[in-house]
Design brief:
The protein has 402 residues and is mainly alpha-helical. It has 19 helices and 5 strands. The strands form 2 sheets. The protein has a 3-stranded antiparallel beta sheet with strand order 4-3-5, with no helix packed on it. The chain has a two-stranded antiparallel sheet with strand order 1-2. Strand 1 and strand 2 form a beta hairpin. Helix 2 runs antiparallel to helix 3, helix 9 packs antiparallel against helix 10 and helix 13 packs parallel to helix 15. The protein starts with a strand and ends in a 5-residue tail after the last strand. Bound molecules: zinc ion.
C-alpha cells in the first residue's frame, strides 16, 4: 500500500478518489435534497425517481473501485443529463486534474465561467481551480496570469496570494514575489521579513549577473534592513564588495558574519578558496584567515580554512587546520583525502598510504552536510528555502552525529 491509499474495511482506496467522491457525494446529496423539496412543494408534479440517480451511484462505485476512466464517463453522462448540477462539474474537473487530464479539467472550469446562472463566488473558485490546473500542467505563465485575475477579483484571498507568490519564485520574478509578500503580510499579519530579505537577495544576484552592481547593493542593503541576521544577504554583500574591489569591506562583513554565527563560516571560507588577488590584498586575506582561526570552527570550516592556507603557501597552518578538522570528525573523507594528497606531494609515501588506509576504514554511507530542521530533508548544498516543506531558513548545517 503506498502513501496515497487508504485502507477501509480491508480494501485499499486511492485518497484522491475518496476525496473527490466525498465532494461529489455532498454535491449530489444537496442536489437531490433540493429536488425532493421541490417535489413536495409541487403537488402537481408526480413523484418519480430521478433518471440521473443511478448514473451518479455508478460513478461513485467506479471511483471506489479505483476505475477513474469509467467514473469520468459516468459523471460526464450525469452532467449531460442535468446541466444544473454545478458541484458535479467542479468534482468532475478535480477528477480530471487528479488523473492528469489538465486540458479536460480546464475545459470544465471554462464552461462554469461561461454559464450565466452561476454565482460570482462559484465562478471565482472555478478561476482559482483553473489556475491550479495550469500550475499542475506546468503552464506556469498562464497559471500566474489566472491567479493575478483571482486576486484582482478577490483582493483578500490569501491562498491565491500564496500560490501566486510561489509561482513568481519558481519563475524568478523576485520583484513580484516581494510585492506579494508585502500584501500577504498585511492580510495575515505574520512576520515574513526574513523571507522578504531572501527575495531581495535573489534580486541582487540577478542584478550582479547583469553587471548592475549599484542596484544590487541597494537590494542587499534593503535585505539586511529587513533581517539583519540574513546569512544569505551578508554572504552576497561581501561578494559584491569584492567585485567592486572593496576587499577590506568584503572581509569586514564576512568577519562579522562568522563571529555572529560560526556555523556558517564554511560558506565564507569556500568563497575565499576560489579567490586570489594582488600581494597587498593577500596580506589582508591572511590576516582575516588568522583571525578566523581563533573562532570556534567546525570540522568542515577547518578543512576549508586548511585549503585557504595551502593556496597561500601557508602549509604549516594549513596542516594544523586539517588535523583539527580530522580530530573533530575522523570520518570526514574530504579532509583525509586532502591530507593524503599533501603527504604525497611531500614525497612521504608511507604516511600517505597510512592516511589512505585510515580513509578506507572510515568510509561509510555518505552523510549529507545539511538537514532541514522542519521536515528532515538532507542535502549537500545549502538551500535557503527547503524544497521539501517550502519553509525558509530551516535547512541548517548538520552537527556532528546530528
Ligand atoms: Zn524542510
Amino acid at each position: 500500500m503506498d502513501v496515497n491509499t487508504l485502507n477501509i474495511g480491508g480494501m485499499d482506496f486511492n485518497v484522491v478518489a475518496v476525496l473527490v467522491t466525498v465532494t461529489i457525494f455532498a454535491g449530489v446529496l444537496g442536489y437531490f435534497l433540493a429536488r425532493r423539496k421541490a417535489h413536495k412543494e409541487s403537488l402537481l408534479q408526480p413523484a418519480s425517481p430521478p433518471k440521473d440517480y443511478t448514473v451518479f451511484l455508478k460513478g461513485i462505485q467506479y471511483i471506489l473501485a479505483n476505475d477513474t476512466d469509467q467514473a469520468i464517463e459516468a459523471f460526464s453522462k450525469a452532467v449531460q443529463i442535468n446541466s444544473e448540477t454545478i458541484e458535479t462539474y467542479v468534482a468532475l474537473g478535480n477528477l480530471f486534474r487528479a488523473k492528469g487530464e489538465i486540458d479536460r479539467a480546464i475545459r470544465i472550469r471554462q464552461s462554469i465561467l461561461l454559464r450565466e446562472r452561476v454565482d460570482a463566488e462559484t465562478k471565482l473558485q472555478a478561476l482559482f481551480d483553473m489556475a491550479m490546473d495550469y500550475k499542475l500542467g506546468g503552464l506556469l505563465q498562464r497559471a500566474i496570469s489566472t491567479f493575478e485575475e483571482v486576486i484582482s477579483r478577490a483582493p483578500k484571498r490569501l491562498d491565491a496570494y500564496e500560490e501566486l507568490e510561489s509561482l513568481c519564485e519558481a519563475t524568478h520574478d523576485w520583484q513580484r514575489a516581494y510585492e506579494l509578500q508585502q500584501e500577504m503580510r498585511k492580510l495575515s499579519n505574520t512576520n515574513n521579513q526574513h523571507i522578504m530579505a531572501h527575495l531581495r537577495t535573489e534580486q541582487a544576484k540577478i542584478e550582479i549577473e547583469k553587471g548592475n552592481l549599484d542596484s544590487a547593493q541597494a537590494h542587499l542593503k534593503k535585505a539586511l534592513s529587513l533581517d539583519s541576521h540574513c546569512v544569505h544577504a551578508s554572504l552576497q554583500l561581501g561578494e559584491l564588495y569584492w567585485l567592486k574591489n572593496k576587499k577590506k569591506k568584503a572581509l569586514a562583513i564576512w568577519k562579522k558574519l562568522v563571529h555572529k554565527n560560526t556555523k556558517w563560516a564554511h560558506l565564507v571560507l569556500v568563497r575565499l578558496q576560489e579567490k586570489d588577488g594582488a600581494a597587498d590584498e593577500e596580506t589582508r586575506v591572511l590576516d582575516f584567515l588568522e583571525h578566523i582561526e581563533e573562532e570556534n570552527l567546525d570540522a568542515v570550516a577547518q578543512m576549508s580554512l586548511a585549503r585557504c592556507f595551502m593556496q597561500r603557501n601557508r602549509k604549516e597552518q594549513g596542516l594544523a587546520s586539517l588535523k583539527r578538522s580530522l580530530e573533530m570528525e575522523p570520518d570526514l573523507a574530504e579532509a583525509r583525502q586532502l591530507l593524503g594528497e599533501i603527504l604525497l606531494e611531500d614525497g612521504d609515501e608511507a604516511e600517505a598510504v597510512s592516511e589512505y588506509r585510515e580513509l578506507l576504514s572510515h568510509l561509510g554511507p555518505a552523510r549529507k552536510r545539511y538537514r532541514c530542521q522542519q521536515c528532515g530533508l538532507e542535502t549537500d548544498k545549502i538551500l535557503w528555502k527547503c524544497p521539501g516543506c517550502h519553509d525558509w531558513d530551516t535547512v541548517q548545517p548538520r552537527k556532528r552525529n546530528g
